Amino acid sequence: MSQAKAPTRFCLIRHAVVAPEYLPILYGQMDVPICPSRLASDGRRYAALGAVLPKPAKWVITPLSRTRATAEAIMRAGYGPAEVQVESGMIEQDFGTWQGLPMSDFANRPTQHPFWPVGGEEIPPEGESFKHLRARVGATMETLAKSYAGETVVVVSHGGAIRAAIAEALGLTSDQALSLAIDNLSVSRVERHGHAWRVVSLNEQISI
């Protein structure tokens, strides 16, 4: 009997908290920096992540600097250096002309989700819906699973993209996916077994 092939394992990490002046706005694909004071105060969390993340692993970030800064902080805190691959398919949802607007502008809209200012099926002007995000992230995860079959991949990405990956794995609706909590510096683990996805954990809080 042939031995079963090892699954491809993914550790999906949401980037660190962004600078406070950007928290009240819908920043989406804007290239906003992470918070310098939180970078210093969260040192123990970075060290904990560096201690528990698997080695060896392929590292993937998005084109936005907050994912690179988060990955580099984890490596400096004890994981050690690793080459990173930039993958645009794992970038945050594109909110089009709504990017940069205050979150307060989206309050009490009929299409608003209970936990997010933009509904799951809603298409922002000149942007993409969460449904489109799911298709993009799903295709990217499939490509990564084939490229690194049987290996471990650490992906530092964004809350929306990680929700999209979980939604594709579990067959959730867009509105159901938007109800998932994905906190900054949390880890969610999924595996690709042949043609099937398996969710191992969601929104792990790694701390010492």
UniProtKB/TrEMBL annotation:
<dbReference type="GO" id="GO:0005737">
    <property type="term" value="C:cytoplasm"/>
</dbReference>
<protein>
    <submittedName>
        <fullName>Broad specificity phosphatase PhoE</fullName>
    </submittedName>
</protein>
<dbReference type="Pfam" id="PF00300">
    <property type="entry name" value="His_Phos_1"/>
</dbReference>
<dbReference type="InterPro" id="IPR013078">
    <property type="entry name" value="His_Pase_superF_clade-1"/>
</dbReference>
<dbReference type="InterPro" id="IPR050275">
    <property type="entry name" value="PGM_Phosphatase"/>
</dbReference>
<dbReference type="InterPro" id="IPR029033">
    <property type="entry name" value="His_PPase_superfam"/>
</dbReference>
<dbReference type="GO" id="GO:0016791">
    <property type="term" value="F:phosphatase activity"/>
</dbReference>
